[in-house]
UniProtKB/TrEMBL annotation:
GO cellular component: ribonucleoprotein complex; ribosome
Pfam family, one: Ribosomal_S6e
Region annotated Disordered, chain positions: 1-22, 98-138
GO biological process, one term: translation
Transmembrane feature ranges: none
Protein's name in the database: Small ribosomal subunit protein eS6
Residue ranges, compositional bias (Acidic residues): 127-138
Originating species: Halomarina oriensis
Family statement drawn from the similarity comment of this UniProt entry: Belongs to the eukaryotic ribosomal protein eS6 family.
Keyword annotations of the record: Ribonucleoprotein, Ribosomal protein
Gene for this chain: rps6e
């Protein structure tokens, strides 16, 4: 059974939230490619839509959107995800994972692409904690 850690970024306020997903919710991610959208209810964000932006496998290899499939491939890179050159023109052969989410995927990175009627803080129950902090200042 697949088990993922989904890291959801909110580009509007710059926050990130981590969710551990397994079982039926994890199956919603299986077979999707980077750049595709998935329903936010898989991580408890009902009414939201998540865009898959990246991830890594059990060994820490990054996923690249320009590598097809779910397997591990050795590609010659001049920069981008998985390799940052130190000199102009430098290239390196790096092992990366393809753009399809599979059983070997451990972490999935996503961002909020469509918003729901409730705020993220309300759905996660974080607003009650913030209001408690305001009463301590008095």
């Amino acid at each position: 059974m697949a088990e993922f850690q989904v890291v959801v970024a909110d580009p509007e306020d710059g926050t990130t939230h981590q969710f551990d997903v397994d079982g039926q919710d994890a199956n919603r991610f299986m077979g999707l490619d980077l750049g595709e959208d998935v329903d936010g209810s898989a991580v408890g964000l009902d009414g939201y839509t998540l865009e898959l932006t990246g991830g890594s496998d059990n060994s820490g290899r990054p996923m690249r959107s320009d590598v097809a499939g779910a397997g591990v491939k050795r590609v010659l890179l001049t920069g981008g995800v998985g390799y940052e050159p130190t000199r102009d023109g430098e290239r390196k052969r790096v092992t990366v994972r393809g753009s399809e989410i599979s059983e070997e995927t451990r972490q999935i990175n996503a961002k909020l692409s469509e918003r729901g009627s409730e705020s993220v803080a309300e759905l996660l129950g974080l607003e009650a904690d913030e209001s408690d902090g305001e009463s301590d200042d008095e």
